[in-house]
Structure formats: structure tokens, C-alpha cells
Recover the amino acids of this structure.
């Protein structure tokens, strides 16, 4: 079927997504965007929630995608919304570890599910929008692709030095473009991201924000070698 497709990448697994300020802002804005476009067009959207098992709370079983879909279903099931949203389709992609995974694995899942996108809208954290835009155009080549930045992050990571953020984004983009074209690079990149999850778990929830920056500071140089 031809359908408007909305991709909602995850950004970690919070202790309680219902009461997490960042996810409430992110998913609330994404929901209202999908709702408004469905209302105008009369078409039933397909929303894909993408994100793997990055849970840093024992027993580490939850996925970003599963938590987001649960929250989104709660929004859709409210009395004011449920009549309009009952035909919406919500799909979980629960293996992604990176932005590249979010995009590439979603594309494969849509094909396997028989969904032919009329267009693809990708929501993302605002500071990552340029990288997401470039990768999305590569992955969904030939399809209309729209990026919707959402500036929802209130953690310390949002306010890191701008030069550090730009350097990180530029290097990660080079790595992910290389991984898109070379399966060997992709495997090494995913292996590094698996190690990242272990590193964050060892830091614990209270040290998560500092651990995120420390990991990137220590790994950016090593990861950059993947793109050479």
C-alpha cells in the first residue's frame, strides 16, 4: 500500500518514559505533527518506532522502540483522539543502534511489511538534523524525504560546547556514510556501539550524561579511522 510514513528514532531508554520530560516533549510533538497531517490528508499514517536494546536499567530488557510505541499508543488512545487514530498503523523496529540503523533497518522493515511509502518524514533531535537529513536522502534515495527537528533535549548533552558537537556530528556522518557503503565498516561500527551500551550501563543511570560525553571523547578518534 502507498502510505505516509513517519520514522521516530529513539534516544535511549528512560527509567519511566511516561514521566520523562525529554520523551514527553519529543513524542508529544511528533504525535501532534502526525495527527495534523492525517487530519488534513484523510490518509492513515504508518509510524515506525526505531531503537534497540539500549536499556541502562536492570534487567536491560526494554527497547527504545517498544517504549516509544507504548507511549504513542497512550496518546492515540485518549478519548479525544481515538476515533481519528484507530486506523493508524504503528510498527516497531527494535534492532537499531545508530542513526544509520534507524534509517536502513526501517527501510528494510517497510519493504518486508509491504508498505510503499508515499513519502518519509523523519523526526530527530534538533542538533542532529543536518546529519539525519544527509543520511536519510542516501538511504531513501528516490523518495520524498522530510526531516522534522525537535529541540526537546534538556539534558547537559544538549548544551555541550558547540565546537565539540559539530566535530562529533561531522565525524559520525563520515563514519555512517562509509558504513552505508561497506559491510566491514558497518560491522565494526555496530560492534563499537554495542561496547558503548556496556560502557553506559557500567556508569549507571546517575552517571549517564557524563558517560555519554566521555565515551565520545575517547572514541571519536578511533571511530574516525573507520571512514578512511
Amino acid at each position: 500500500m502507498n502510505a505516509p510514513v513517519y520514522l521516530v528514532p529513539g534516544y535511549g531508554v528512560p527509567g519511566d518514559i511516561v514521566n520523562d520530560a525529554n520523551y514527553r516533549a519529543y513524542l508529544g510533538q511528533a504525535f501532534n505533527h502526525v495527527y495534523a497531517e492525517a487530519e488534513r490528508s484523510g490518509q492513515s499514517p504508518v509510524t515506525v518506532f526505531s531503537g534497540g536494546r539500549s536499556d541502562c536499567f536492570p534487567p536491560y530488557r526494554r527497547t527504545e522502540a517498544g517504549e516509544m510505541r507504548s507511549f504513542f499508543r497512550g496518546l492515540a488512545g485518549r478519548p479525544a483522539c481515538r476515533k481519528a487514530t484507530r486506523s493508524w498503523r504503528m510498527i516497531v523496529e527494535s534492532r537499531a543502534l545508530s542513526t544509520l540503523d534507524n534509517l536502513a533497518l526501517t527501510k528494510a522493515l517497510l519493504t518486508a511489511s509491504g508498505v510503499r511509502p508515499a513519502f518519509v518524514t523523519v523526526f530527530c533531535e534538533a542538533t542532529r538534523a543536518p546529519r539525519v537529513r544527509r543520511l536519510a536522502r542516501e538511504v531513501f534515495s528516490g523518495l520524498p524525504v522530510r526531516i522534522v527537528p525537535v529541540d526537546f533535549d534538556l539534558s547537559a548533552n544538549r548544551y555541550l560546547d558547540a565546537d565539540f558537537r559539530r566535530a562529533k556530528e561531522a565525524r559520525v556522518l563520515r563514519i555512517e556514510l562509509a558504513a552505508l557503503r561497506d559491510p566491514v565498516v558497518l560491522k565494526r561500527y555496530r560492534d563499537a556501539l554495542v561496547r558503548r551500551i556496556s560502557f553506559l550501563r557500567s556508569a549507571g543511570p546517575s552517571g549517564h550524561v557524563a558517560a555519554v560525553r566521555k565515551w565520545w571523547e575517547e572514541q571519536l578518534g578511533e571511530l574516525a579511522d573507520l571512514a578512511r
About this structure: The first helix runs from residue 21 to 41. The chain is about 55% helix and 15% strand. The CA atoms of residues 55 and 119 lie 31 Å apart. Helices lie at 21-41, 64-76, 82-85, 99-112, 129-139, 162-181, 183-203, 208-224.
